[in-house]
Amino acid sequence: MLTLLAKLFKALNSDSSPRQISIAVVLGLIVGLSPLFSLHNLVIVFVVLFIRMNIGSFILSFGIFSAISYLFSFAIVAVGESLLTASSLQGLFTSLYQISIFKLAHWHHTYTLGAVVVSAVLAIPLFFICNILITKYRVHVKAFIERFKIVKALKASSFYRVYLKVSGQEI
Known about the structure:
Blueprint: H1 2-13, H2 18-33, H3 39-50, H4 55-71, H5 73-85, H6 90-97, H7 100-105, H8 110-145, H9 149-156, H10 158-167
């Protein structure tokens, strides 16, 4: 867990785009809230592996949102149940269930459908909130920490230059 946290801080302090980290957090939200072995999670894992994003942020946010899903599972089930039992949507779900891919998606389960809907509703606001927080972090907190004399001394040391060479970063 500490290595994932260190990788997250490395990503926050790197020159990578805040959008890449925000997308990783949003995808971690979707995978973390829903049941682990579901079709949409499999698709998201393939997306994470093939698109350039911070995997450490994805794994950390997956863990955080998995813990949160246990706390709010009653609300997620209530959302799924209200959608499945709504009389206006029963025909839609009945016709979708006749298609094999939707049977595999398990959207006929209250928790899975509720998790997909809740994560879809939270995805866009979370993306923008993470984007703003990462930008604010880089402008304010990172600049504040770099003003400390000990940080300046560490960056001036030969050990730090060797670390930069080994990690593949420019001096």
